[in-house]
Amino acid sequence: MLGASDTQQVAIERAKAQGVYVITTDNRPDNPGHRLADECYSVSTTDLDGALALAKSCRIDGVISYASDPGALTAAYIAHHLALPGDPLEAVRKAQDKFLLRCEQAKLGHPVPECVLGDDLVGVKRLWASAKKGLVVKPTDRAGSVGVCIFHTPPSWSALMAAIDKAKAVSFHGRAIVEARLVRTGFQFGGDYLVKQGRVLFAAYADQYLFQTPTTQAGLGNLNPSTQPAAVLAEATDQVAALVAALGLSDGVYNTDVCVSDGKVVVLDFGARLGGNWLAEVHRYATGVDLTDLAIRLALGEPLPDLGDWAHARAPRVHAGHLVIHADREGTFQSMAFSAALESVVVKKTVSVRPNQRVSPYRGTPDRLGLLLISSPDREQLLPIYAAPQAHFGLALGLP
Question: From 69, 224, 339, 363, which residue has the greatest number of CB atoms within 10 Å?
Fold first, then answer.
């Protein structure tokens, strides 16, 4: 198990419930998942050769980077060298690189924003001169809004160069991508897909609620089911199926961000792993399909349950979502007290902030203070919470 964060504990628990001996590793020995594992180590999930050496010494039967982008390539690297179940290494490498992913989408004729690499100054200048609706700059290999800068109007050249330098600085490989900004219609939405032998067997979709700042946006939460029309969701699934085939992916659970722009369905991002922040649990509560369990079975090469009726998304049993606990200003954390309305719908929670810890305004995953899984048979009960989450967290912050 590459990673043992608070939101990855669910996969450790599910694997152990299956009778699997779980070994965790990452560069955070204080991560809570390590305490649940049978063995734990302090090898970084992005250290390809270090993780491979550990996997060899432990004589593992399977490897998974659960709901985490940084370890996805490492999992494929280990599986490749040890002949374990998993996607082809080159397929994952392309899937996890935002520029190579755009190239594959363009080859398929799918709608994508015009984009160039940050080091291609000729291409950047051309895009800068033509992108009237603004630009988006991001690292080619990071997730969770890390290093992302969104310009809603054409920026100055110096501001654009500064954003590219910032994105390259946090990229694992020092690369950035610059894209024309898309103006979306309605909710951005996300999907998680179960794929076996290259075929999409099941897709679950959820509306995405985003925290907007002048220069970026970060996911606040997802709410299943999505309110997008069935035709839009079907088109998204078709594009993902074609993309999976083009990339050469075969067996796994994958995640996307999708929007509608200028009347076209656009797959904004793709991850060769499950969605983070308990998204699999969101889908489990809403549909009854346990993608965590299935991802573990795929990683071990075990047969899946009968999937005959999974080609069609199951009707939601309840409305379920996750919600990131976050601050909207800088300060030191003192306490939090959920509103009665929020407390009544919380199914599961994890809090990662400590008293007197300095907190920052939410810009992405590193600023997360905790996470909630919420559920209700009545969507209207959840919507006011997503509309104004700060009013329901009851955060008390001291001076920075």
Answer: 224
For β-strands 370-376 and 346-351, DSSP reports them as: antiparallel
Edge-first strand listing for the sheet containing 331-335: 358-359, 331-335, 396-398
Residue pair 270/221 in contact by the 8 Å Cβ criterion: no
Q: Is 368 exposed, middle or buried (0-12, 13-18, 19+ CB in 10 A)?
A: buried
Contact 296, 12 (CB under 8 A): no
- For 370-383, write each residue's pLDDT tens digit: 999 999 999 999 99
Examine the pLDDT at 5 and tell me if it is beyond 70: yes
pLDDT at position 308 over 70: no
Q: Do 55 and 24 form a contact (C-beta atoms < 8 A)?
A: no
CA-based Rg of the chain, rounded to a whole angstrom? 20
DSSP string, 336-385: ----HHHHTTEEEEEE---TT-EE-B--SGGG--EEEEEEES-HHHHHHH
**List of domains in the chain:** 6-84 (3.40.50.20), 114-180 (3.30.1490.20), 182-316 (3.30.470.20), 318-400 (3.30.470.20)
User: Rounded to an integer, what distance in angstroms lies between the CA atom of residue 173 and that of residue 352?
Assistant: 29
Q: What is the mean pLDDT of the chain?
A: 95
Q: Which of 315, 348, 336 is nearest to 389 (CA)?
A: 336
- Helix, strand, or coil (residue 391): helix
The upper half-sphere exposure of residue 325, i.e. CA atoms within 13 Å in the direction of its Cβ, equals: 25
Assigned token pair, 167: 């994105």
> What's the CA gap between 62 and 180, in Å, rounded?
40
The distance from CA 399 to its chain's CA centroid, rounded to whole angstroms, is 32
- Of the CA atoms within 13 Å of residue 143, those in its CB half-sphere come to 22
DSSP 321-339: EEEEE-BSS-EEEEE----
Strand order in the sheet with 319-325: 264-271, 252-261, 189-196, 199-212, 217-224, 319-325, 370-376, 346-351
Collapsed DSSP state (helix, strand, coil) of residue 121 = helix
Residue 131 contacts residue 151 (beta carbons within 8 Å): no
Cα distance between residue 184 and residue 187, in whole Å: 8
